[in-house]
Each structure stands twice: as C-alpha cells, then as structure tokens.
User: Fold Ferritin from Aureitalea marina.
Amino acid sequence: MNSTIEQLLNDQIKYEAQASMQYMAMASWADAKGYSGVSNFFYAQSEEERMHMTKLVKFVNERGGNVIIPSLDQPEADFGGLLALFEKFLSSEIFVTEKINHIIYECLQKKDYNVHNFMQWYVTEQLEEEATARTLLDKLNIIGDNTSGYYLFDRDIEILAAEG
Ligand code: OFO
Assistant:
C-alpha cells in the first residue's frame, strides 16, 4: 500500500474513533439532562462511528498495511443546549467528510482504485449523516426557545434512533 494512503487511512481511523467518543460524550450529556431520545440517538451514532473505525482497521490489515491504533483527544463535554449539541454534530460530520474527500483525491492522484472503491461506502454514509444533522438542526431552529418543542423533538428523535 502506498505510504501516503496508508497514513491517511490511519488518520481516518483516528477521526472515526474521535467521532465515536465525541458522540458518546454528547449522549452522556443528553442522558444527564433527561433527554432520553437525544441520548439514545447519540449512543447509536457513537456505535456507528466505532463500526466505521473497525471497518478501516480491518481493511488496512487485509491490504497488508500497518495499523496504528491512536490515542484520542478529550471530547467536548459541555454544551449550552440542544442547538449547540446538534451544531457540534453537523460540524463534526462536515470535518469527517472533508477528510474522506481528501483520501479520495489522493487515491486518484496515486491511482489506488482499490482504496478509492472502498472509500465510496464512506462517501455515501457521510451524505446520509450530514443530511440527518441538517434536518435535525432545521427542526431545532424552528422550535427556537419553545421548551415544549424540545419535549416533542426528544420524543421524535427517539423514533429515529430506534429505526437506526
Ligand atoms: Fe460520520 O463519520 Fe464515520 O464515516
């Protein structure tokens, strides 16, 4: 495996792991505040990102690359409210999308079509996750300061989390 691509995939392992821990912190914050729907949503997101990380670890190993399991930064744990929480969700997903796009770009430069093909799964996944984050943020912007709206939002997102 090309060493630049190997490095980028290892970096991506870290970003996915970091996202998983960030969403765990967000789930825990929501849990402590009594938003059970929001917390279940982020517990599930945390699991998903862990799966994204594992998929990369297995792929790099299959390709005979060298996997480095990274140490992680402390995730952000304090959020002013649901709006700030979901803004963090969207910015985190946008960050990951940019990193994935960069890997795709490098794959084309280095003519590594195998990794390019593998990464298409992540491109599709990111499209979905960014769309979900934007939809939820739109809803929160409509709700504004209406606390009974928060109650309904939490109830609705519980359904979304259950659907996976
Ligand atoms: Fe949504 O971050 Fe993984 O791919």
Observations:
- The mean pLDDT is 95.
- The two ends are 34 Å apart (CA to CA).
